[in-house]
Amino acid sequence: MSANLKYLSLGILVFQTTSLVLTMRYSRTLKEEGPRYLSSTAVVVAELLKIMACILLVYKESKCSLRALNRVLHDEILNKPMETLKLAIPSGIYTLQNNLLYVALSNLDAATYQVTYQLKILTTALFSVSMLSKKLGVYQWLSLVILMTGVAFVQWPSDSQLDSKELSAGSQFVGLMAVLTACFSSGFAGVYFEKILKETKQSVWIRNIQLGFFGSIFGLMGVYIYDGELVSKNGFFQGYNRLTWIVVVLQALGGLVIAAVIKYADNILKGFATSLSIILSTLISYFWLQDFVPTSVSLCHQDGVLWPDLGSLQPPTPWFKGFSCLSP
């Protein structure tokens, strides 16, 4: 049963990651009549959906008893205000990160975004070493260097890019800065959240409820500050359609899927799932969205980014070297 749950959670993670990137990219570049949906409101709605899903999971763990659910929420959240407040920091960072991902995918093709966003592996490693006193081996540091090299190749302009003034709906520089900032925020928030989880015995679903609560507050502040005028003019759900709701649901599902993968699988298998998601995103971005043209450089950088995911604890295998730019 546990083996089935492990592979099921990994399969859902691949589907969620790939689908979110592609649908978000498509929804932000699709030309439609009327106002486009606001990414700030989408982040808030996703947080609210995540809270509702976690409450249902806690309700199930409480043997479907409303009284037991109320007691758990009261004891673990209201009666522990300092523990709850600790989640305000990663929650605010995650909210910023979620908004940045919308900006990134409005300005970068799905394949470039997927690969560049893997720099969060490097930032997570650096924060783990500094905040959790983790030690990395030689091959792990070597994988991170190859990761940085691969991401550098992603941003290396090809001849077709040099001849074109505009590659997408927005500025590639803005998209790059957005995804790099998201990488740093993801690394810090992830390690901070891991530190909190290891220091306490609270359920991961309770922690996600706390994250979602603060995330909703910070998200609403962002809506008021940046999009208050547009909301008052066209409404909170302006531009929402079926595709928008799919994006919101997939984003809400992300945190829950990661928790399930960590519970039933492990980080190495999670790396395989992430790598498969990158490959699928690249193929679909090329054949369906038609906003990514693979070159010899881009194929080379794919290997440089995938190796840290596929085997950061081990040196590259002979078959991998035979089909990559790592081979002599």
From TrEMBL:
GO function term, MF aspect, one: pyrimidine nucleotide-sugar transmembrane transporter activity
Entry keyword set: Membrane, Sugar transport, Transmembrane, Transmembrane helix, Transport
Source organism phylogeny: Eukaryota, Metazoa, Chordata, Craniata, Vertebrata
Predominant subcellular localization, coarse grouping: Golgi
Annotated organism of origin: Colobus angolensis palliatus (Peters' Angolan colobus)
SUPFAM superfamilies (alphabetical): Multidrug resistance efflux transporter EmrE
Name the UniProt record assigns to this protein: Solute carrier family 35 member A3
Signal peptide (residue range): none
InterPro entries on file: EmrE-like (IPR037185), Nuc_sug_transpt (IPR007271)
Annotated TM spans: 7-26, 38-59, 136-154, 174-193, 205-225, 245-265, 272-289
Subcellular localization: Golgi apparatus membrane
